[in-house]
Write a structure and sequence with these properties.
alpha/beta; about 30% strand; binds flavin-adenine dinucleotide; Rossmann fold; about 240 residues; Elongation Factor Tu (Ef-tu), domain 3
Length: about 240
């Protein structure tokens, strides 16, 4: 089902990412980690699109449910369709959204969790992290890979949660900047920071290759398959 919603606030989060607050008439119903879809007719919007008919792209709600508003953090690709459409919106514009759905949601808030993400793959992790610090009873490790410090999304939120929650440990890894912290592929740092790897649930989201590499590495390290949760489409995207 689709419905209309109004953009009530826009904030430039990083050089390429804008955050949108989008308000609807009714409360949004979803589990933290799930995504809506942005839908539009490209011809009407004056946007070039490869497909005939409406463009439909998934974007993840980064706030917790319980209100009439969701926040979306959307990275602009210059050659993109929906990301360009959204970056050209203004406050008070109306957009069409689809019902929220998706597989990347917390399975159990009493077990230890490890979040592994890169880039905009952080968008489902942020609401799951917010939910876990409210409800969870175990340890949280959060590994986040980005190119440079200025590209790190939600850094203020993550650092504040890190300071407030002794059970949270955060590792940023940068692939395109020399700094004092870890560098290179984020998934390669997991085994440096965690000893009892197979006793935890892993949630991973990001570029498909990172998700597939993370799953393979965890498998090699003896973590059972069912301890690793992802959106589920990434293997197919890498094989293509
Ligand atoms: C479950 C799910 C949740 C998602 N949540 C978010 C979210 O919260 N925030 C967010 O920003 N995105 C999210 N995405 C990605 C989003 O749905 C779009 O794929 C993305 O915005 C690009 O769409 P587009 O229409 O602009 O580009 P498209 O029209 O799909 O692609 C056109 C061109 O844009 C460029 N391009 C598009 N995507 C990429 C890429 N990943 N890397 C490099 N170049 C690219 C390429 O040149 C490509 O040929 C999510 C995707 C999924 C599957």
């Amino acid at each position: 089902m689709s419905f209309e919603a109004t953009i009530t606030s826009i904030h430039q989060m990083t050089p390429e990412v804008k955050q949108f607050v989008v308000r609807a008439d009714e409360e949004f119903e979803y589990e933290p980690g799930q995504h809506t879809t942005v839908q539009f007719d490209p011809e009407e919007a004056g946007i070039d699109a490869e497909e005939d008919g409406d463009v439909v792209r998934p974007y993840t709600a980064t706030n917790l449910p319980g209100t009439n508003a969701i926040t979306l953090a959307i990275k602009r690709y210059d050659e993109g369709t929906a990301s360009v459409y959204m970056h050209e919106r203004d406050t008070d514009d109306t957009i069409t959204l689809g019902d929220l759905s998706g597989n990347l949601t917390l399975r159990d808030t009493d077990e230890d969790v490890v979040f592994v993400s890169t880039g905009t793959g952080i968008t489902p992790i942020i609401p799951m992290l917010r939910q876990y610090v409210e409800e969870g009873t175990g340890e949280i490790h959060f590994f986040y890979g980005e190119k440079t410090q200025e590209n790190i999304m939600y850094r203020e939120t993550i650092d504040a949660l890190d300071a407030q929650n002794e059970n949270l440990s955060v590792v940023y890894s940068l692939s395109d900047e020399d700094w004092d912290g870890p560098t290179g592929h984020v998934q390669e740092h997991i085994e440096e920071y965690i000893e009892d790897l197979d006793d935890r649930r892993y949630y991973t989201c990001g570029v498909p290759q990172m998700v597939v590499d993370t799953k393979e590495r965890l498998d090699e390290l003896g973590v059972p398959d069912d301890h690793v949760v992802s959106e589920g489409w990434e293997d197919g995207a890498v094989e293509d």
